[in-house]
Specification:
The protein folds into 2 domains: about 30 residues, no CATH class; about 55 residues, 2,3-Dihydroxybiphenyl 1,2-Dioxygenase, domain 1, CATH 3.10.180. The chain contains 1 helix and 6 strands.
Length: about 90
């Protein structure tokens, strides 16, 4: 990652569900001390159309938090009305 962090995805053989682990170094805009209820505790979904799901989530009361439209994979985060981050990831 550009900010020095690392991420890995693990997939069980013959399965499509993935587990993603992230590390953010001190000083990164994403690094913060762990506490329950932060954006580090979030739900993530791989979707066919990230833009559609972001617009839908915002229409239902969410707020766009981070949008990485320019990366090799389309990636965006929306905060739900309770402040929980929801990640939408897919190909552009």
């Amino acid at each position: 990652m550009e900010h020095g962090g690392q991420w890995v995805q693990m997939v069980m053989p013959k399965q499509t569900q993935r587990l993603e682990l992230n590390y953010y170094p001190s000083g990164s805009r994403f690094e913060e001390p762990f506490r329950n209820g932060t954006e580090l505790d979030h739900l993530g979904f791989f979707v066919d159309d990230v833009g559609y799901w972001v617009r839908r989530a915002v229409k239902l009361g969410g707020k766009l938090a981070v949008d990485f439209s320019e990366t090799h994979e389309r990636l965006a985060y929306v905060k739900d009305p309770d402040g929980v981050w929801v990640e939408f990831c897919g190909k552009p």
